[in-house]
Amino acid sequence: RAKELGGDRFKVFTERMLDQAMQRMSLERDLRQGLANDEFFLVYQPVLRMKDRQLVGFEALVRWQHPSRGLLLPGEFIPLAEETGQILELGRFVLQEACSTMAAWQEQHPETEPFFLSVNLSGRQFSSLDLIEQVRSIIYKTGISASRIKLEITETTIMEDAENAVEKLRRLKNLGLTISIDDFGTGYSSMSYLQQFPLDNLKIDLSFVRLMEVSPENKEIVRAIVSLAHTLGLDVVAEGVENEQQEQTLRDLGCEYAQGFLYARPMPADDARRRMLETA
Ligand code: C2E
Ligand code: MG
Ligand code: MG
Ligand code: MG
Questions:
Q1: With pLDDT > 90 as the criterion, what percentage of the chain qualifies?
Q2: Do 106 and 144 meet the contact criterion of CB atoms below 8 Å apart?
Q3: Which of 28, 78, 147, 272 meets the CB 3.0–4.6 Å disulfide criterion with 44?
Q4: In this structure, which residue's CA is closest to atom 37 in ligand 1?
Q5: Of all protein residues, whose CA lies closest to atom 44 belonging to ligand 1?
């Protein structure tokens, strides 16, 4: 009987694996078609200055309007795109789209000059050989001022490619862009490396913002991250701020900027533009 049970389990297990493999294959094919059919688009989430809740910029976040599965979040397709290499094309689209949106804002409303736009770079994109050339050409073609574009690169990505990262970041900085280290606290940074990287901001991962409320120790971890950032001369952005208690704590810890549902959800470009004009 035990054997029978085990057999059943094995069957269920392989069926599930097969199912997953099929889903993966169809997703890979869909990604290819989606890229060809313009099914990807960007939404923009406001970033605010904590002391007065003043809007300072946006983070561009990719979405996929899938023809049969509906709206998909990055967590549902970025990992696979990263694995298959399709992220390179998707990433190019994101950068291109973000920069041309920014260019249009800048042209129609010169008063939006001080706002920045953050774009996420994946690991593969960061280590790809033509990144610098790609960024340079998109900036040139769209005519935006490079200083308004921030590239968000995760701590893990930077550390995985630490040897080349210093030089690469320096070249991006030379183009005039600013650099954020994203999801900070989730990777294993070496302090000696951190201070070599030419960075501008550090983004505290939302998991820490959430944990902060759970125990005083976690709050101390966030305090340590903020203080480390300041020692390195970086501004701190907290992501995933959902309530006023978190906001208050982060403010008390000296965090400069915040992003989260407390202020705004990611929104279409037109709403972001309107928001900017109200503030400008
Ligand atoms: P991330 O760069 O850390 O972006 C922040 C994520 O937190 C976004 O999720 C955002 O919608 C979410 N978020 C913001 N405020 C709150 C909040 O108050 N509560 C909660 N629960 N969540 C909040 P999203 O858009 O699903 O993106 C997830 C991740 O996917 C991003 O994390 C980023 O790593 C990646 N991603 C998004 N867009 C792109 C892209 O264009 N290229 C690449 N390579 N990765 C992207
Ligand atoms: Mg990000
Ligand atoms: Mg982040
Ligand atoms: Mg994060």
A1: 78
A2: yes
A3: 272
A4: 61
A5: 122
**Host H or E run for residue 58:** strand 54-66
Task: Report d(CA 235, CA 17) in Å as an integer.
Answer: 45
| Ligand 1 contact, 122 CB (< 6 A) | yes
Question: Residue 239: its pLDDT value, please?
Answer: 96
Is residue 57 within 8 Å of residue 264, measured between CB atoms?
Answer: no
Q: Whose CA is nearest to atom 34 of ligand 1?
A: 120
DSSP state of 34: H
172-178, long-range: CB < 8 A, 24+ apart: 172/131, 172/132, 172/135, 173/198, 175/132, 175/135, 175/136, 175/139, 175/146, 176/139, 176/145, 176/146, 176/147, 177/135, 177/146, 177/147, 177/149, 177/150, 177/151, 178/116, 178/147, 178/149, 178/150, 178/151
Distance, in Å, from the CA atom of 163 to the CA atom of 21, rounded to the nearest integer, reads 35
Give the phi and the psi of residue 255 in degrees, each rounded to 5.
-70, 130
Alpha carbon distance 241, 238 (integer Å): 7
Q: For 39-52, write each residue's pLDDT tens digit.
A: 999 999 999 999 99
Question: Closest Cα partner for 227 from 183, 171, 184?
Answer: 184
ipTM metric: 0.97
> How far is the C-alpha of 25 from the C-alpha of 127, rounded, in Å?
25
Work out the mean pLDDT of the chain and round it to a whole number. Answer: 92
Q: Which two tokens stand for residue 58?
A: 């946006």
Distance CA 248, CA 230 (A): 19
